[in-house]
Model the fold of this input.
Amino acid sequence: MTMIPQEVIRRKRDGEALDKADITAFVRGLADGSISEGQVAAFAMAVWFSGMSLDETVSLTLAMRDSGEVLSWAAIDKPVADKHSTGGVGDNVSLMLAPIVAACGLAVPMISGRGLGHTGGTLDKLESIPGYDIKPSAALLRQVVKDAGCAIIGQTADLAPADRRLYAIRDVTATVDSVPLITASILSKKLAAGLQSLVLDVKIGNGAFMVGLQEAETLARSLVGVANGAGVKTTALVTDMNEPLADAAGNAVEIENCLAFLRGEKAGTRLEAVVMSLAAEILSTSGFTVSPAEGTDLARRALKSGAALERFARMVHLLGGPTDFVERAHAYLPMAPVVLPVEAPFEGFLHSCNARDVGMEVIALGGGRTRPDEPIDHRVGFSGLKPLGTKVAKGEPFAFVHAASEDAAQKSRSRLLEIYAISEEAPAGRPVVISKISG
Done:
């Protein structure tokens, strides 16, 4: 029987469950353009109001995955794994995690994205590196994963094309924040990468899209349930995003932060806690280690030995970057002409901040976009961001602004002094890894 789009929309509008065949046919029409933009918008709104069951969301995800190419890694005799983050500020975890677990023995074809809203994008950070190709051919991608163990790239036109059209329509019809549609959008791209296992980092807090624990865990359970239902072994960690995760926020400054981490210079930080927790999960979920504890030990050895840094260097070179980038990063990364310290106005403890506002200030400096086609300034951002709970003396810098002009630097410095609150008392400590959702 032929699928009639308006009947699918009506049934979902009325709260009925859709069968797999109708969902598959609707997504096929979404991808080939035979279903109109108005019908796609109506479908998205019907899902927003009525929701979807687990089985429906699995069917939607698989249909969107199969709307384009699905990568095969049959020639690589390693577990194929990846990680996805829902996004935050100073969240450059992917840059370190991929080479760390690659050095441990996994294959990591990591499909990443650009900045969204106040959150930074992994691809924007990597484009700070001269020559780095975020859209290699399928043949080059396979070669890089084979030789370096990991490749961090962008979504190609052949991967999940139905998601690109649906997302563009959701973006202008106030239907972005639907858990089934978020789930299908994230996982269709990840599953198209041919993964065997996946670990999710679902952020919570004032710098995340999910502010409350309940909504974060609802999304995490949906993602984990659907990914496992689609045949990809998946777990999720819910992690804190009430302050920038790294001590840098921007593009080139976060690449510098990544290199410092891979050299072993970020031990004991919140960033290290998240990276190592995710490394432990991805190694155990893939079946490479028997437990997260064993995965942590293996990841620490890969970091300490320099093997992870070497994998990052190899990935950069194979994807078109300089052969000596790791050794001479300062010769290649774009540098802001003005670097201005942000000094504490009085003695006290860094008590709180709004991480979202920090991300928005990076955009104000030119380090992010207000329109999809807008160019960004890779030089700008913040470095030396001290973590909350740090005691600072009057006049002591707790951050540095990297800006294109003196005027922009002064404005951003004033704004950061408003964003960060300093108190006589230290804030209560917060765990950085809050909960785990298993399949």
User: Anything to note?
Assistant: The chain has a mean pLDDT of 93. The longest strand covers residues 197-204. The two ends are 35 Å apart (CA to CA).
